[in-house]
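Aim 2 progress update. The chain analyzed this quarter is reproduced below.
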Amino acid sequence: MSRVVERSTPSRLRIGVVGCGLVAQVMHLHYLGELHDRFEVAALCDLAPEALDHAGRLFPTARRFSDWRAVVAEPLDAVLILTPGSHAPVAIAAAEAGLHVFVEKPMCFSVDEGREMIAAAERAEVRLMVGYMKRYDPAYEDLQTRLVPGEIRLARVTTLESPLEPYVQHYPLQRASLDADLLAELIADDDRRVTAAIGSDDPVVRRAYRAVLLDSMVHELNAVRGLLGEPTELRFADIWGDADGITATLAFGETQCVFMWVDLPGIARYEQELAFYAPDERLTLAFPSPFLRSMPTRLVLEGGQPGTPSAWKTVKTVSYDEAFKRELVEFHTCVVDDREPRTPGTDALRDIALTQAIVRCRLEGRPIESPTQDARVEDRPLH
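Predicted structure tokens:
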């Protein structure tokens, strides 16, 4: 039974952090400390004592818990859910406790889970925001003001994945290990949710869905949707190697878009580009590793004089402001001002639908019309 907590919203939110692992230690805890005028970290939770102790040293007044159920029972305004598994159980319970919810991507493992999360948030009249930090990148926002979707003929999204260790070894991280039985239980839960999402028992397809589409490519899918809108057709999808790469071709109306993701474990340099080609200009976002703080994304603008050798290229650094920090500011603002975030659960649900559609396209070997349509919430009851 859900319950709505009646409370006035303060300007400084009391929050609980569920999950104190890698992304929390590298980014979120750091910026929550910088944003102490907006957030009071009142509760911390992790299954690993080492990670919990590390976070506790950063926020010594916060109460510490190993069970997230105890966190959502605390007198809080909001929770940040930064765990590596599905966020649905914690998010639903937090919403039912009347708490606003920020979840790291992926929002969940399936459209069905996401719909339950959205329904719980709507019943409790709380905000549900998904952490797509690329959408809050200053260079991305600059590109949004320049790009005219109907004029783009081709979009090309390329991600060259590389080991993350070189990008995080300079941070004071506390790596943690879990009890073998507990770890096996968490893996089994992941497996059950992946099966519910895609049905397939093919180990390569399952690995691609869980480790690539949900953990990585969901960022690119969301970023392109934020610029071009909803895809009208998923034309082709392939998973190759031992889930070493994924290729997907989509149509956004008249715009053709090709996504290419490949793992390159022997190259110590991450590279990602979102490139958009119009008849008279090229617009490219070159993203750095997401684990580097305040490393700017480059916006590359290219054009020229048709019929002449005259051409120009501008590489623009828009800002050194950190996207992870900016999305936390957005979460605070949408809670305090009672407005929808730019990356709400209803939007993220379409990304989950698209990841499921990519697997279905690969397994069935056929195009899929309107691949995000299953995630529409306006034409289906949520309660």
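The two ends are 12 Å apart (CA to CA). Residues 203-228 form the longest helix (26 residues). These observations will guide the mutagenesis experiments scheduled for the next reporting period.
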